Amino acid sequence: MYGLFRRQDIRALGGFNEPCVVPLLKPANSSFRLDLDCYFSFLKDDSFIRISCQVRGLSATKMGKGGKAILAEDAVCPVERAPATKPPFTVGDIKRAIPPHCFKRSIPKSFSYLISDLVIIALAVYSTKYFVYDGLLNWAMWVAYWVVTGCVATGVWVIAHECGHHAFSDYQWLDDTVGLIFHSLLMVPYFSWKYSHRRHHSNTGSVEKDEVFVPKVKEDFGGISKYLQHPPGRLIQIVVTLTLGWPLYLLFNVSGRKYERPANHFNTHSPIFVDRERFFIFVSDISLLAVAGLLYRVYAAFGLAYLVKMYFVPLLIVNGFLVLITFLQHTHAALPHYDGTEWDWLRGALATMDRDYGVLNHVLHHITDTHVAHHLFSTMPHYHALEATEAIKPILGKYYQMDRTPVLLALWREQRECVYVDKDSDNTEQGILWYKNKVE
């Protein structure tokens, strides 16, 4: 007896070419082995398997004498890769599909989102005055404060990031003023990151010139990473990346592109920047020093424990979100990367994955589930991005990529599957590289 994955269930995952045929073994001495990246359930008649997210692989095993498992048949559902050939449409075609009002920036509307976030944070801070209980209840209230403040402050970070893209208003000076204030309050060097992030948008998908989360090519893969390709090692990598990844990137260009000399986001003469940008790197540094001085005054008045609980724990959550969001947007086995012989801007911008964070999509101002549109038109304000995304889907077709796998499952899967990039063994696509995980 055979069971068939229903085509509509598989397509809903956005990740497979065809449904998979798998033997459903009924004898008592037989059993299923399913290698899943998520949860699954059998329907009432046992004839279909419903899967809520991506399937890594599956097989049927038959128990031999003494309980020894004998492989009966394997059926693997491969990830459907995004198209890597030159698309049959242009940026102009995509833009014409988007309603013109989606490109309009409104000062009142932009400020309304920022003010809403700030009010929520202020209320959360004020509520800590009433955390007078002892024991577990007190800790539960603090955890709630950290989660709410960290998530909403990430939304503030996203708005300041939009300022760097000139997506907040029609006035560059206003965008830079708002962005400088609120990124500095979150310990982000506004202009420094604005310039490096702009280069990320200009070179997305390039293994040679992209600025952040640049995958290692097979020839460069090695060192300690080679010995961390097992579950405990992957967990260590995830924890370090989410907690230290953001400051390590800013300070030492960890996961960034290669430069001829050491690079960071605070040195005015860092190779990341050109001469006309160096004064503004200095402005960013001075702004961070001003915020550091403000934090010192809080420490002097209330103590280190207060400062850590009120500011640094939520900031740790913000930093973790930044790394998580960026990693998942640009890391997926379906996404191609290109070397200098093949890369072009449009294909690079399309090598981006929209993700579903549930209710957090709204809290994070849809930077998560509209990132493809953001890479195509970065000056578009976030409050029009959902409408724009729906408008461009018919034009993009299979070039549009969305993965609704639960975020933590996706993080673990990508850490396991996306180890380095390399050309396929058949070598038919010169200059196009795909994620692989075979460690020799």
Quickly describe the structure.
The chain is mainly α and 440 residues long. It has helices at residues 7-12, 91-97, 107-127, 135-164, 172-185, 190-202, 231-252, 278-302, 304-330, 345-350, 360-363, 371-376, 385-396, 407-417, and strands spanning 2-4, 21-23, 30-36, 40-42, 49-51, 55-63, 69-75, 337-338, 354-355, 402-403, 420-422, 432-436.
Computed Rg: 24 Å
Structural class: mainly alpha
Number of domains: 2
The fraction of residues in strands falls at: 5-15%
Query: How many angstroms does the end-to-end distance come to?
Result: 39 Å
Beta strands, count: 12
Taking pLDDT < 50 over at least 5 consecutive residues as the criterion, the unreliable ranges are 1-77
Number of helices: 14
Helical residue percent?
Answer: 40-55%
- What is the overall silhouette? globular
Strand order of the largest sheet: 3-6-7
Multimeric state of these chains? single chain
Instruction: Note the main sheet.
Output: 3 strands, antiparallel
The succession of helices and strands, N to C, reads EHEEEEEEHHHHHHHHEHEHHHEHEE
Q: Determine the mean pLDDT.
A: 86
Pathway: Lipid metabolism
Family: Belongs to the fatty acid desaturase type 1 family.
Domain Fatty acid desaturase: 139-401
Domain Fatty acid desaturase N-terminal: 82-121
Write the layout of secondary structure elements.
Elements: E1 2-4, H1 7-12, E2 21-23, E3 30-36, E4 40-42, E5 49-51, E6 55-63, E7 69-75, H2 91-97, H3 107-127, H4 135-164, H5 172-185, H6 190-202, H7 231-252, H8 278-302, H9 304-330, E8 337-338, H10 345-350, E9 354-355, H11 360-363, H12 371-376, H13 385-396, E10 402-403, H14 407-417, E11 420-422, E12 432-436
Parallel strand pairs: 9-10
Antiparallel strand pairs: 1-2, 3-6, 4-5, 6-7, 8-12, 11-12
